[in-house]
Amino acid sequence: MGLEFIARSLRTYGIVLLIFLPFGLYYFGVYPTLAVLSGGVWGILNLMFITALVRLTIRPGGADAGRAIAIGLIKFPLLYAAGFFLLKVEQFSPVHLLIGFGGIMGIIVLKVLGRLALGLDAIPNSNKPVQGGAH
After folding, report:
1. Each residue of 55-81: pLDDT tens digit?
2. What is the mean pLDDT of residues 110-121?
3. CA–CA–CA angle 91, 97, 100 (5° rounding)
4. Largest CA distance in the chain
5. Which of 59, 77, 101, 131 has the most CB atoms around its CB within 10 Å?
6. Would you say the pTM of this structure is higher than 0.85?
7. Rounded-to-integer distance, Cα 87 and Cα 28, Å
8. Chain centroid to CA 125: how far?
9. What is the mean pLDDT of the chain?
10. pLDDT tens digit string along 5-43?
């Protein structure tokens, strides 16, 4: 698993949010659905910024400090201020926002469990004796 796993998880969560939208509007109403959708978009943006910061700071050629600082200046004050103001909207329940914020983690956990169940990341058995070699 690499950073492409995160990109696939972000796309999956975006699709889940789009599928949730019509059903949420019908079953839960406009404001709870908008709260979950807003929290989900916030969670997607947050993980995108985290991924960008990791790519800019942990790399073989050294960190790109200028771009990392620029991304950090966008992520921390602006994104967290937006999250704070989402919590201040009277029509949005904090529980619905939390479902949207945390939904991306649910998608990642389910994807990891699926990969484990299917054995996609299995490490070959290293306890086997090497044939033809000295022991």
Report:
1. 889 888 888 889 999 999 989 899 999
2. 89
3. 140
4. 72
5. 101
6. no
7. 19
8. 31
9. 89
10. 999 999 999 999 999 999 999 999 999 999 999 999 999
Indicate the helix (H) or strand (E) that contains 16.
helix 3-27
In terms of residues, how long is the chain? 135
DSSP string for 18-37: HHHHHHHHHHT-HHHHHHHH
**Mean pLDDT of the 117-126 span:** 75
Name the token pair of 46. 């947050």
Phi, psi dihedrals of residue 97, rounded to the nearest 5°: -65, -40
Give the HSE-up count for residue 122: Cα atoms under 13 Å, Cβ half-sphere.
8
Cα 81 to Cα 34, 44, 67, 77, 78, distances in angstroms: 18, 16, 21, 6, 5
Which tokens in the block code for residue 75? 């992520």
Could you tell me if 86 and 45 are in contact, meaning their C-beta atoms sit under 8 angstroms apart?
no
- Report how far residue 99's alpha carbon sits from residue 36's, in angstroms, rounded to the nearest whole number: 6
Q: What are the structure tokens assigned to 110, written together? A: 């389910």
